[in-house]
């Protein structure tokens, strides 16, 4: 969108909110101002790299969009905190009806946020002060805005204009750059080391990951629109904190909790897409027939069923895996569904199953510690989870096909499950495919051969 169109959008949205604020001031006493505005573009048009206020964009598989900016309430986990601390703190908070918390948790709650992640707390959650939702295909957005206490119309105008300000295009403060990414030699060395652990019987599977870096060539709006068009079945999500962005187009639901029901996606086992329909079908058949991939996949399903049993009244997995096709790759996929025991929240479920063997390995605890100790760089939020939370319910998706963007530079992450018989060249190629969504969307040059 052009700078003038962006400014016109900002002005008109602000005028509608001020109007609704003035009407509400004469009527009810609710803290939040609620209105509906015509909106015929994607809510991604409100997202911008250079917005200093924390902000969030989310477009799950349903196609409904959410955008939030500014902080009404924030909740962060620091070095020593765990899931239980988050849960306790959430229990003490209250936010207006219809407003969710957005946030993310790390891959390993036991690890400190180091390296590129040291600029962020270990887990970040916030309820935005200006929140828009738009149903798929609709050209109307619902707006919820919480004015500062005691604000008058003038204050509200200034506040909303500020929340939607973009603070200069392309001007980034000097910050430390990312570390040198791993080349094939170092990656192969990590795979060999993982294979040694497996041969010696300490682990059965380890997910070995790598990252690539590059300059971002697109506006955030272009990036998000690119991802939503190309990956309609993934959850496209972007969250900024202190000007840095975490982005993901996740195909993998860690857990969704609505009332007493829970849904989990197990995703492990990967093949590329074919160049023709025939080749694509053949690759899918080979994936289904591959004992190595089926073993890798079954380990995830078994872990999830075992780990979730204590918080469930009933739980079941689909009979066998299906093939989930994404634009870049195809995966083996099994859905697990269950009925939760009374009082079990989203965070109880996440604590029980995360990180699953799909992103850590098996045995899960040993593999998680192994990854944290031997990856060679801190995973932070990569292979962590992001999503929404309201009163115990919500959805968390695994932060895969993801990137961290700081001052116009991106680190793009991908990992592969290593089991007995894995080959470093094939795994490198798989990691390249997994990086493709973010590379293409961000316009970062890439595709490096082994
Ligand atoms: C670790 C990643 O993906 C995970 C690993 C998979 C595999 O090894 O087959 C498949 C899907 C994901 O659960 C990633 O995309 O970075």
3D structure, described in words:
By secondary structure, this protein is of the alpha+beta class. The protein folds into two domains: 3-163, no CATH class; 184-236 and 252-442, 4-Layer Sandwich (Anthranilate synthase). It contains ten helices and 21 strands. The protein has helices at residues 3-26, 83-91, 153-163, 184-199, 220-230, 277-289, 291-308, 346-353, 364-374, 424-442, and strands at residues 33-38, 55-59, 65-69, 73-77, 101-105, 123-127, 130-134, 140-145, 205-215, 235-241, 244-250, 253-258, 261-272, 312-317, 322-325, 329-340, 361-362, 385-390, 393-398, 402-406, 409-418. An eleven-stranded antiparallel beta sheet has the order 1-8-7-3-2-10-11-20-21-9-17, sandwiched between helices. A hairpin with a 5-residue loop joins β2 and β3. α1 (3-26) packs antiparallel against α3 (153-163). The radius of gyration is 22 Å and the shape is globular. It starts with a helix and ends in an 8-residue tail after the last helix.
State the main characteristics:
450 residues, alpha+beta, Anthranilate synthase, 2 domains, 10 helices, 21 strands, globular, binds ligand ISJ, IsoChor_synthase, ADC_synthase, EC 5.4.4.2, isomerase, Chorismate_C
């Amino acid at each position: 969108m052009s700078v003038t169109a962006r400014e016109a959008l900002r002005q008109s949205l602000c005028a509608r909110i001020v109007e609704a604020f003035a009407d509400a001031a004469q009527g009810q006493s609710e803290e939040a101002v609620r209105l509906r505005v015509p909106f015929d573009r994607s809510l991604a048009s409100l997202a911008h790299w250079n917005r200093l206020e924390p902000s969030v964009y989310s477009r799950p598989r349903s196609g409904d969009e959410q955008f939030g900016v500014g902080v009404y309430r924030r909740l962060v986990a620091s070095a020593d905190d765990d899931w239980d601390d988050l849960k306790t703190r959430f229990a003490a908070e209250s936010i207006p009806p219809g407003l969710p918390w957005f946030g993310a948790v790390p891959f390993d709650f036991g690890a400190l946020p180091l390296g590129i992640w040291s600029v962020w707390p270990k887990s970040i959650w916030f309820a935005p002060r200006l929140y828009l939702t738009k149903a798929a295909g609709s050209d109307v957005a619902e707006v919820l805005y919480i004015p500062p206490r005691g604000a008058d119309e003038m204050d509200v105008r200034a506040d909303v204009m500020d929340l939607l300000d973009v603070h200069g295009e392309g001007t980034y403060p000097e910050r430390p750059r990312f570390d040198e990414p791993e080349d094939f030699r170092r990656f192969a060395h990590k795979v060999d080391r993982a294979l040694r652990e497996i041969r010696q019987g300490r682990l059965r599977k380890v997910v070995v990951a790598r990252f690539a870096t590059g300059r971002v060539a697109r506006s955030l709006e272009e990036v998000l629109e690119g991802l939503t068009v190309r990956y309609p079945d993934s959850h496209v999500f972007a969250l900024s904190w202190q000007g840095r962005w975490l982005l993901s187009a996740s195909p993998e639901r860690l857990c969704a909790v609505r009332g007493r029901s829970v849904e989990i996606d197990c995703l492990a086992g990967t093949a590329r897409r074919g160049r023709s329909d025939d080749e694509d079908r053949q690759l899918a058949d080979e994936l289904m027939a591959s004992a190595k991939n089926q073993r890798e996949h079954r380990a995830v399903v078994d872990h999830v069923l075992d780990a979730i049993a204590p918080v469930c009244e009933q739980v079941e997995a689909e009979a066998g895996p299906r093939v989930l096709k994404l634009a870049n790759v195809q995966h083996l996929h099994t859905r697990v569904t269950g009925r939760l025991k009374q009082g079990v929240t989203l965070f109880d479920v996440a604590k029980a199953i995360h990180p699953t063997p799909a992103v850590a390995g098996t045995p899960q605890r040993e593999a998680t510690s192994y990854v944290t100790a031997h990856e060679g760089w801190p995973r932070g939020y990569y292979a962590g989870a992001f999503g929404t939370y309201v009163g115990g319910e919500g959805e968390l998706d695994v932060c895969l096909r993801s990137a961290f963007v700081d001052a116009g530079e991106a680190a793009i992450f991908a990992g592969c499950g290593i089991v007995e018989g894995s080959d470093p060249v094939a795994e490198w190629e798989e990691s390249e495919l997994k990086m493709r969504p973010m590379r293409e969307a961000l316009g970062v040059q890439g595709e490096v051969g082994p």
